[in-house]
Structure formats: structure tokens, C-alpha cells
Amino acid sequence: MKSKFVLVVLMALLTLSIPARAQLVIEITSGADQLLPVAVVPFGYTGSTPLPEDVAGIVQSDLLRSGVFQAIPRENMLSLPTSAKDVFYRDWRLLKADYVLVGNVDANANGTYRITYELVNVLTQKRVGNKEALDVKPSNFRDAAHFISDKIYEQLTGIRGAFSTRILYVTAEGNKAAPTFKLQVADADGYRPQVVVSSQEPILSPSWSADGRYIAYVMFRNRRPNIFIQELATGKQQQLAQFRGLNGAPAWSPDGKKLALVLSKDNNPEIYTLDIATKKLERMTNHYSIDTEPSWEPDGNGIIFTSDRGGNPQIYRLDVKSKSVERVTFEGELNTRARLTPDGRYLVTVQKNDGNYHIALQDMKTGRVQVLTQTYLDESPSIAPNGSMVMYATTENSKGILAVVSVDGLVKYKLPSADGDVREPAWSPYFK
Amino acid sequence: MRWTDKESYSLPVVLAIGLHVIILVGGSVGLVLGDDEPPAPKRPPIVNATIVDVSDTIIGKREAELRQAAAQAQQEAQKKAKEAARKKAEREALEKQRRQAQAAQKKREAAERKAEADRRALLEREKAEKARKAEAAKKKAQQEQAKKEKAQQEAEQKKRLEEKKRAEEEKRKRQEQERAKELERQRQLEAKAIAEAEEARRRQAEAEVQKAIAEEEAKQLRIEEGQAVQSISSLIMDRIASVWIRPPNARNGMKTKLRIGFLPSGEVSTVDVLESSGDSLFDQRAKDAVVKMGRVEELADVDYAIFERNFRQIELLFNPQDLRN
């Protein structure tokens, strides 16, 4: 009886379902492991005086370096439109460009230039966003190009671009026995370096304030390490800590009010925080082992640091309020110099495996660890403010250089080599 | 008839018979009392002695004498006894004669009385017999009459029963005939129904065969259509997957559903977002992928009805599962 009823229901369902012919649904669960093809058309310019920079060229380099795009080579382009209305879409379909950036440069009467640009979607044959215009001085062409790169990158990836950011790094030049140390600041692509401070004694651990206006670093004086902070725009320098023993590894708190640092004034390297305004010092760790290399969590609630309290150096997390400590890394022979991505999701460390030091990425949610680099003696990783890239120092031909790897490990490039050894890169935050 | 009836001979007859019985019984009793019991024979005493002839002896001689005297005395006594017995027997015979005469007298008188009584009884008997016979005759006549009537009744009864029986028989026959007729009618009806059912069954079977053929053909068409839809679908899926470039912020599980319109030539005529992932860039890349796929030439070769049913409008669900995040 029951089965009969079920049968009837089934029949009813069947008869119901037959007329309602389901719309064909095709599910696509995998995509192309392919970079987005973008054509950056050379910007139009009709003036007679040569331009200081090839804006389109800088934009294309920026986009290529991000590891998200592939560019259509200029020599393949069938036409060079300078505005959206001139784009002949079939040409770009043939070149398999999904997006085309077109622009134009015009000289203004006051010696500045007006740069206009438009991004078009070849597939929908529509402009993405608006036609934009920038008025720039000749000295700011690179800034304008990075600005355009940031805008295009954000429009095509949904992620804020970090091309307009800068980097700090330390070079050691000249005589190997007595080198000259220089703390330098440059564009994120390595161009336009400027010396911030120079010394015959070592300079270490440069660090940016959260707003990018200040930097902190360790500079030896009379063979003793001292911590300085300095305003970049004015060059105004201030010595912050000069305690007995080690004074090292300053790190700005996200709110910009404090520095975390390492002091051995009580015989043993410990993590402290220093209130910049009140100079109030607070001891954060208390352990007979070495605690060093502090770095703030993005929300400022915790400090991650390196400690060998477990035998080998590993990364630990210090809760700022309770000062409780928990271990964070477990893979690799040792982990040092930890940094968190701005979203707090990934931890980047220098990890030693089989005698080699590489940059490793640990997913804080899943615990999964991925070694990102295969270079030699990698050190001092620093993360771009958009969390997409990691800059680090490595050794090539017995010389220290800077290299970049994307957090997915797929994109790697080296920065243009400066003179001498390059160490200790620090990627800036977004400038306000 | 009563004992005390004056005119009846019953009482005297009884009395006479009773008297005769008494006399006879009394006589036989007397005879029985008079018979002596014969004396039981005396068994000679058993003596163990040697037989000796003593007759020639003195003792023998004396004894012979004594024995002779005794035998004489005995003979005397026996003679006397015989005499007495003879006298007694004579006496008794006289007596007997007298008694016999007396009894004969009485018997004669009784016989006379009896004869009288018999005569009267005979008269009575005759009279009674006559009456009885008359009565019997009357009775018989009555019985005859009754018998006759009864026989007549029985005859009538029998006749009625027979008639009834005949009627019933006729009725039964009639009913049987009707039943037979009814049975025949039913049999015919059943035969007709069976024939009709047979015909219906045959027609249904034929229809089923036709239906099965039609279904088989439809099924075949459906299979062909299903195969066509399957192959074109996987073609579209592969082509879109090969050109779908996800933005870096794409995550597994993001879903965008598009509705695609095709022209019979295989060209994409419309692309609309049915369900957004919430991320406009992710949606855009899905739309871009459809446009990049371009014309599906194979659709132009698909049967027009199949195209209309399946591909005039389709839905695409972009649901990445292969991303790192």
C-alpha cells in the first residue's frame, strides 16, 4: 500500500517534471592558466620636443612585472589608436588582446603636459571607466605612469596597485674591508634611487611608518648600534634609543605611535615597545633565549617575532595586551624575519631547509606552507602594501641584490642592480 | 357380566369345580399316607470264621435241633403274621370298596350338576355368541364402510398428490427449461464478452506495439538529441574554460550565472548576467570568456529543432574549483 503510494507520487513527479524542460546549464569549473592579454598602445604625442619618459612603456613594464598580464608587443600592433573612438576592435581581436590602453600626451602652455588615457574592453567593445586626464611636470612623468599603472591594475584585477610605492634598502659600496653604507629610497621598480643617509658604519633594519612619511633604522655609531627615526621629506633625524648592549630591529606600530624594538640592556635580547612621543619603554618578552625581529600585526594587537626558545629560531606571536606568547611556525629547520601580509592571511619568513635559506609563505588559516623562492641565501622579505608581492634580498654572483616574488610564487623578477651589495629592502606602505 | 348376577351360572360352576378338586386332592392324600415305607434290607454282619462242618458233632447236633425248633417257631410266627396281614388286607379292601362307592355316588351327583350347569352355560354361550356375532357383523359392516370411505379418501388423496406432483413436475420442467434458456443466454453473452475482450486485447496489443515503436523512435530521437546536446555542451565548456581568465581576486566557489543567446549560425547574440557573483570583475571576466569563445560553428550543423529546444538560450555557471584559494 505504501509502496503504491510512493509509486504514485513518483509518477506524479515524473509527469510534472517532463513538461518543465530544464534550461541547459553548462558549468565551467576551470579556467585558463593564462595571463590577461593587454595591449598598451604607445601614447600619442604630436609635439616637437622629445618627451622625458615613455609613459606607455613604463605602464607596460609595471603591468608585466605584476605577473597578472601579458602584453601585446608593440611591433605586432596593426594600428596605434590614441583614443577609444579610434580603436578598431577587430584588429585587437585578431591580436587576441582582451583590453587595450590608449592615451595621448599634449604639451600645455605652462610647460606641463596633459596626459589622457582610456581603457577599452575589446570583447564588449566598451570603455572601462572614464577617459582620464593628468597634468604633470616633466619630472613627474614616472609618477604619472605609475599612477596610470595603479589605476589600470585596479580596474583589471580588483586589487589596488602598488606601483607608486617606494622601497628602502641599504647598499654597501666601495672597499669591501671598509665599505660605505647607504640607506636609499627608490621607486618600487627600483628607479630613481635617492640616498637618505650614508655612513661608514653599518646601517640596518630600515622600516617605514604606517603613513610612509617617516622611517626608522639602526645605524652604528662608534661600533654601537643606535636607533634613529627620520622624516623623509625633510631629512630630519632623531636618535631614539641608545641603551646598553643591542639596540635593534625597530618596527612601527600600525597606529604610528610606537616602535617595537629589541634591546639587550637586561643582558638578553628581549622585545620592547617604545612610545615615540613619551619615550616610555615597555618590556614585552621575558625569556632567557634570544627574542628578536619584531613585526606588528596589521591590527596592532600582536607582535610576531623570532625566538630560539624552542631550540631553533622559530616565529612566535606575542599578544600585546596579555604578553602571552605562542609559537606560529613549525615547518623548516628554522624560520626568521617574519612579516604578515596586510590582510593578515599569510606569514612570510626566511626558512632554512637542507642548509638553504628561502622565502616561505605560510597560510595562517590553513597552516599550509609554500617555499616561494629558489634563489641563494634569501633574506629580509618585505611585502608590498597590496599583499601581492614580496621583495627580498638574495645573493647572485657573490653580490647582494633585490628580487621580487609574487605571493603565489608564480612571478619572479630582479630589480635593476645598483652598485655594490644591496640588502635589507623595506617596501613602503601606500602614501596617504 | 358379574359374579353376583342371578341369572349367571358362574357361581355354581365355580363351586362345583371347587368341590371336585377338594375331593380329588383329599383322596390322593389318603392314598399317599397309607403306603408303608418298605424296610431297608439288613446287611448281614461280616464274620471272620473258618467254615467248619459241625453237623456231625454234638454241638452240631444240638444246634441242628435248636435250629429246627427255631425254624418251627419261626414258621408258626410267620403263619400267624400272614394271617393277620390277610385279615387286615381284607378289612382294608372292604373299607376301600365302601369309600369308592361313596365317591362314585358323589361323583355322579356332581356330574349331573355339572351337566346341568354345562347345559345352561352352553345356552348362555350360544346366546352370547349370537349377540357377539351380531355385534361383530355390525362392527364389520361399520369397518367395511369406514374402510371403504378411507379407501375412497386415500384414492382422492392419492389423486390429489399425483396431480400436485405432476404440477410440480411440470413446474420443475418449466423452470429447468427456463434455467437452461437463461444459461444459454448467459453463455452467449459471455462468449460475446470474451470475443469483445479478445478483440479489445488484440487492438490494445496492436496499439502497444505501435506505441512501443513510437516510443522507441522517440527514445532514439531523444538519445540522438541528448548526444548532440552533450557533445555541443562539452565543446562549449572546453572552449570557454580555455579562454576564461579569472581575476587575481577570484576564489573557488564564486559563482556567476550567465544567460547566453545563440543564433542558429552558432554566433552568440546575447550575454546577460542572471546571477552575479557579487564581484563585478569576476562577472565581467565570465562575460569576456563567452565573447572570446566566439561563434560555435558546430551549432550550425545541429538539427534546427534540437537547436531551438536546447541552444536558443542556455545558461552558463562559472564556478571555479581549480584556484589556489
CATH class of the largest domain in chain A: Mainly Beta
Largest sheet of chain B: 3 strands, antiparallel
SS elements, strand count of chain A: 31
Radius of gyration of chain B, CA atoms, in whole angstroms: 78 Å
Which class do the helix and strand fractions of chain B yield? Answer: mainly alpha
What's the pLDDT, averaged over the residues of chain B?
86
What share of residues are in beta strands of chain A? 35-45%
The poorly predicted ranges of chain B are none
Q: Termini separation of chain A (Å)?
A: 76 Å
Q: Kindly state the number of beta strands of chain B.
A: 3
CA radius of gyration of chain A is 27 Å
Percent in helix of chain A: 10-25%
Quick one: overall form of chain A?
globular
Mean pLDDT of chain A: 89
Number of domains of chain A: 2
CATH homologous superfamily designation of the largest domain in chain A: TolB, C-terminal domain
Backbone shape of chain B: elongated
What does this structure look like?
The complex is a heterodimer of chains A (432) and B (325). Chain A is mainly beta. Chain A has 2 domains: 8-157, Rossmann fold; 166-427, TolB, C-terminal domain (Neuraminidase, 6 Propeller). Chain A has helices at 2-17, 55-65, 89-94, 141-157; strands spanning 25-28, 36-40, 44-45, 69-71, 99-107, 113-121, 126-136, 166-173, 180-187, 194-199, 203-208, 214-221, 224-231, 237-241, 247-252, 258-263, 270-275, 281-283, 291-296, 302-307, 314-319, 325-327, 334-340, 346-353, 356-363, 369-371, 376-383, 389-396, 399-406, 412-414, 421-427. In chain A, strands 2, 3, 4, 5, 6 and 7 form a 6-stranded mixed sheet that branches. By secondary structure, chain B is mainly α. In chain B, helix 1 packs across helix 2 (58-243) and helix 2 packs across helix 3 (280-293). The two termini of chain B are 149 Å apart. Chain B is elongated. Chain B contains 4 helices and 3 strands. In chain B, a hairpin with a 5-residue loop joins strand 1 (256-262) and strand 2. Chain B has a 3-stranded antiparallel sheet, covered by helices on one side. Chain A binds chain B through residues 21, 23-32, 34-36, 68, 98, 121, 123-124, 156-159, 388, 408, and chain B through 229, 233, 236-237, 240-249, 257, 279, 281, 284, 287-289, 291-292, 309-311, 313-322, 324. Strand 1 of chain A pairs parallel with strand 3 (313-318) of chain B.
